[in-house]
Automatic annotation (TrEMBL):
This is YaeQ family protein. Transmembrane segments: none annotated. InterPro entries: Restrct_endonuc-II-like, YaeQ, YaeQ_sf. SMART domains: YaeQ (SM01322).
């Protein structure tokens, strides 16, 4: 018998001073049976860091991710269905990233394992011609601290200022300092 996804609810209150994005977002997250708290919380963080200031050109959506290999974890699509931003987590292979780069206006990857620098050094040279690709590492200790905030129903305040991210609940707070392994060219 197949296991069903577990539903989590998150209310995000975002104050991103670096991008001038402020708002409140209700997310319903279908957590795949094989997904960890850490991965789910990185997915929520990636959503918060990439949510557009408005939905005039389309909106950011959580996708099937682990359940469908043809979809990212998160994407932003315009009103015609064109993919504006493809967001993946973990350590996808270079073929997946090249395919995503061909389909989307921007591609972002958020790695969160301690082996992320090793993974990136192995594929970095194969992706030098992908100017719209950005790769970020969330330090493992920080992503694990973020995972400790996971609950079935969450209220998260996410503040971004000068590249630092502060995620706060009524019980705890976590500081996250992402490391840019590759930035997208404008």
């Amino acid at each position: 018998m197949a296991l069903n996804a577990t539903i989590h609810k998150a209310l995000l209150q975002i104050a991103d001073m670096d991008r001038n994005v402020y708002g409140e977002y209700n997310l319903t997250i279908a957590r795949h049976p094989s997904e960890t708290d850490e991965r789910m919380m990185i997915r929520i963080l990636a959503f918060a860091l990439n949510v557009p200031a408005d939905d005039l050109n389309g909106k950011l959506e959580l996708c099937k991710g682990l359940s469908d290999v043809d979809e990212p974890e998160i994407w932003e699509r315009d009103l015609t269905g064109e993919i504006l931003h493809w967001i993946d987590l973990g350590q996808p292979d270079e073929r997946r990233l090249q395919k995503a780069h061909g389909r989307a206006g921007r591609v972002s990857v958020y790695g969160f394992a301690s082996s992320t620098p090793v993974w990136w050094s192995g594929i970095e040279n194969k992706l030098t011609r992908q100017p719209r690709l950005a790769v970020w590492q969330i330090p493992a200790a920080q992503s694990q601290a973020l995972a400790a905030l996971a609950e079935r129903s969450m209220q998260l305040q996410i503040n971004v200022q000068d590249g630092g991210i502060y995620v706060t609940t009524d019980k705890a707070s976590v500081e996250i300092l992402p490391i840019a392994l590759k930035t997208a060219q404008a």
